[in-house]
């Protein structure tokens, strides 16, 4: 599969982020705990520069627990605080807010020394689409639907959200990069739903996922779909899954569209198990 997708509005978002960064004290970088490398926009570090940053490993309830701990240590060795977050239950968010106060305490103290009044910490959350930013904002604001509004003195479009504690969040849309240099990265994003299914060849994508899971998480795939045989080709596995789940059309033919959507949905929902598709690099 050759995945290459970069809508024009993404370029505009990049320029907007550069402007908005001047308004904030620190940045939350939101990553998918299952694919921290693939879900990281490579231009983010360039844009953020020396701003204090906290990495949020979201959806860790879908990722392998031990692997997520390894990722936290990986970032720690680089001097970066990484926090595993389960948005559905709100776990990890309190720690993230506490850490935001820690990484900005010097700046806040400096402002007071200059005679300025104490003010809220101004933060920004950045990440690719569909990594859970809206859900996190809803959790932080304590509302079912985060309502944003223009802050006085801020250019239209720059929307601030008051979150728990003494913190304001500048909301930004998700961004992707201009092209996928590595097709494995593109596949990881497609597997987890960061790329819209509507522009994908779903049947090929599901087949690629079956192949990956058979290599990395064979036991979980066998348990979920009651597989009892050894297979040589991913298509054989997919055919058995379809038959076991009744994804058959008239004439006994396999409904590949149906079984493909089912496999992808069950992976994304954690029904196959807690699975991490990427391991942290060795430092």
UniProtKB/TrEMBL annotation:
Q: What is one GO cellular-component annotation here?
A: cytoplasm
Q: Which GO terms describe its molecular function?
A: GTP binding; GTPase activity; RNA binding
What is the similarity comment for this entry? Belongs to the TRAFAC class YlqF/YawG GTPase family. MTG1 subfamily.
According to its UniProt entry, what is the function of this protein?
Required for a late step of 50S ribosomal subunit assembly. Has GTPase activity.
| Annotated compartments | Cytoplasm
**Residues that coordinate or bind GTP:** 58-61, 130-135, 174
Record-given protein name: Ribosome biogenesis GTPase A
User: Which keywords does UniProt give here?
Assistant: Cytoplasm, GTP-binding, Hydrolase, Nucleotide-binding, RNA-binding
- Which BP terms from GO are recorded? translation
The residue ranges of the CP-type G domain are 13-178
NCBIfam families linked: GTPase_YlqF (TIGR03596)
Q: Which domain of life is it from?
A: Bacteria
